[in-house]
Specification:
single chain, alpha/beta, Aldehyde Dehydrogenase, Chain A, domain 1, Aldehyde Dehydrogenase, Chain A, domain 2, 2 domains, seven-stranded mixed β-sheet, five-stranded parallel β-sheet, 14 helices, globular
Amino acid sequence: MKIPNLIGYQTSSEGTNTYQTINPITDQLHPALFVEATQEEVDRSATLANTAYRIFSRTSPMERARFLSAIVTELELNKLLLIATYCGESVLNEQRAEVEFARTIFQLTSFADLLFQENWEIKHIDFPEPNRTPTPKPQLTKYKLGIGPVVVFGASNFPFAYSTVGGDTAAALAAGCPVIVKSHPFHAHTSYQVAKLVVKVAEELGLPEGVFSHVNAIGYEVGKQLVQHPFVQGVGFTGSIPGGLALQQLAQQREVPIPVFAEMGSLNPVVILPSALSSNSEDIANRLALSITKDSGQFCTKPGALFLLACTETDRFLETFKPIFEQQASYSMVHPTIACTYTQRAKQVIDQSNVHLFAQGTTTTSCNLGIPQLSLTDGQTFDTNKLLQEEVFGPHALLVICKDQHELEQILENISGQLTFSIFHNEENIQTSNLFYIAQEKAGRVILNGVPTGVEVSPAMQHGGPFPSSSDSRFTAVGTDSIERFLRGVTVQK
């Protein structure tokens, strides 16, 4: 069976390049062949999206809200099929699939609710003052308009919530922007099943053809063509720093550059102060072990570096933490490529001078394992070795023992931008401390006495931090405020 591209309301299989998805637990290929999009199909999807934009951007917020709500209905009607497909391709378990499915539904519903608010699209109104001196004041109305066709790249680790009809797609459609999804080859069948439902809903509602398209690709060429197509006006991406930077470079090389809203890698530092360890050591150890290893550590918010001060409280904590971490199980990662990269990167860290393996989780006989690992080093080594400051995507974290508070703060001053920054403490004045101010400067979300995994979908959530954790720290990739990425202001004066 060959799986086509969905170009507007038509299926299309003009290419000769095909690929298959894989079950990472068994290393067996799924039988379906996905036909990679040709340059002509990419051009057709962008042309349709550009034509659709003129109509779709003029629809009322209510019409777009009904579109998102109808997608929710179709997803729920097909939930069992979607979850079975998801689990077979990603090996993420059914519980995780249920959570991610519910999050996807909630995201779509949240944007629909936002659009149902009265005069949502109006940002400011300045009423006229014709008798004002020395010059009369005109009436000014500033409203929000979608930027144009948007390309969304599916994320490898979130087949539902960050992919085909995940947060980027929901935000762009709510803004009035047609969307072209470049499906992720690791879960292409899940993506295709979801895309068919979106196309079905769009056609049934009489929306313009091209409001949504879905293209297959395993290589980089299709993504490059999409980003550089003159009709595309914005990009949504969740993935690695090299991937995000490559897309940014492509977007800036265009005759008319466009924004790339990329959520990229992050070390997500966790500071564990002695004041938190005197009475809470075992609880902190359990929470961190789970946060590092859950779903094989395949979260952009996984803690990658744990900072402690050299003291007796830290010594006791490490004695507690080690056996707890060694009980953590290994699981297959979402794709052999990711598992191989994780193994190589974790080994690369552990092989560095003054770094050693501190604890390792249990293993199984499954394929493509992400084996939980904790490595340990000192503050000076971490501060002077840039490789140790890079994300290891998977269930690995680095323990960094700093000689004192001054060294800790100096190290944290030197790290790059982060999605999150966590502080475990028992100090009343933590929010007026220098450490807290460093955390604010370095990250989009500061967590006090908690772990960074688990991102609440809320208007109050900031998921995006200073470069290189994201391409533009002014915006969030989670919550209804993420719609602002795909809008621009237009003022009507009269």
